[in-house]
Amino acid sequence: MKTNRAIVWVLLLLMILFVATGYGLTKPNLIHSLTGGLINHQTAFYLHTLLDVPLLILLLVHVMIEVKFSLLRWGFRNPKLLNSLVFMLGSIFLVLIAYLDVARV
Question: What does each C-alpha distance from 9 to 2, 14, 55, 80, 99 come to in angstroms?
Fold first, then answer.
C-alpha cells in the first residue's frame, strides 16, 4: 500500500508536467508566459515525448496493484495464481507500451 501511495504522488506530478507540456505544444505562448519563460515550444516537445513512457509504466504498476487488491477483496484466494495473473496482465501491457513507443509512425 505504501508503494502504491508513493506511485500515486509521482503520477500526479508527472500528469501535471505532461498536461503542462501538452499545452506548451498547442498553446506555446500561454505556457511560456505562465512558466516565466521556463518552458518554450522546444522544451515542451522534448519533455512531453520524454514523459509518456514513464507515465504509462507507473500508471500500469498502479493499476496492477489495485487489480490485485480488488481481486483479493472479491475472494480470489490462490496467491500463486493471483500473482501470476497480475504479472501476466502487466507484462502484456508493458510489451504493448514498449511497442507503441518504438513503432512511432
Answer: 11, 9, 12, 29, 27
- If we measure between CA atoms, which residue out of 5, 40, 2, 6 comes closest to residue 21? 40
CA atoms within 13 A on the CB side of 55: 15
Which H or E run includes 93? helix 79-102
Note the pLDDT tens digit of each residue in 22-60.
Answer: 999 999 999 889 888 888 999 999 999 899 889 999 999
Q: Can you read off the three cell numbers belonging to residue 44?
A: 515542451
pLDDT of residue 105: 61
CA 31 – CA 44 distance, rounded (Å): 9
Q: Which of 100, 104, 103, 12 is nearest to 58 (CA)?
A: 12
- Alpha-carbon gap, residue 73 to 33, rounded angstroms: 48
Alpha helices of 1-105 — where are they, by DSSP H? 2-26, 28-34, 41-73, 79-102
